[in-house]
Amino acid sequence: MALEELLITLAEPSPVQAQIITKALEELGARQVEVHTTGEELISQARERRPNLVISAYHLPDMTGSDLVQTLRGSSDLYDLPFILISSETNPERLETIRQAGSLAILPKPFDGPQLAQAMQSVMSFINCASLGAEVDADMALMSVLIVDDSQTSRHHIRQVMEKLGFEHFCEAASAETAIPYLEQEPFKLIITDFHMPGMDGLDFARYVRDSQLQPGTPVLMITSQNEPASQEDLEDAGIAACCEKPFDIEQMRELVRRLLNEY
């Protein structure tokens, strides 16, 4: 699919901001941009005419951008829509909710052309992502992936990306503690864990995986975010094979996973 083929739906209450964003998208090649002033209006229209991409401000008259993306992720028909936030909001906790829900990009107001172009490149990479099947030395249909994250929406987004890459079998755990029994039950080709979780965090979980020798040949990929950085020393000490920051670019994730599958 090409950019000019996308149906983009935008939730933006300000006519001026809506015009700025629409014009910037059109300059990149977009041809179909629908503007809505409320979240409910966007959701209702999306159910009648499914878009390829949702873009939203954070502050809407009837809900926040966080509420909107959570509603989308919790619905049976719109849960997999790519999402971008464009907002002047800088509160780390509010933005973290957006990251956890799998936003492909978070742009500031005002944004510049290169920032929007990079965000749209992430969208196109996500939509057109190809399976890794031909690039790895094993049958991906036989591989299992363990996803550990206390956020259900984050687990869902990670799984969605992994499915695009060609994986078919998954186990999901909402904490490191509940993930441990899975390590004892079946071998995994890849373990993906969030960094910040209640109880045992991602670093401690990775150390457990390494020290227990339950999955000695399985790489651990850690997902972090901007407000919870982990030092390179900590990552190496815990035996982390690779690290990716939210919101992650799918091409970056694709290359990391391809490398891990071929090295381990």
TrEMBL record:
InterPro entries: Bact_response_regulator (IPR050595), CheY-like_superfamily (IPR011006), Sig_transdc_resp-reg_receiver (IPR001789). PROSITE patterns: RESPONSE_REGULATORY. The modification 4-aspartylphosphate is found at residue 194. Gene3D superfamilies: 3.40.50.2300. It holds the Pfam family Response_reg. It comes from the Bacteria. SMART domains: REC. PANTHER family: RESPONSE REGULATORY DOMAIN-CONTAINING PROTEIN (PTHR44591:SF3), STRESS RESPONSE REGULATOR PROTEIN 1 (PTHR44591). This is Response regulator. It comes from Chromobacterium amazonense.
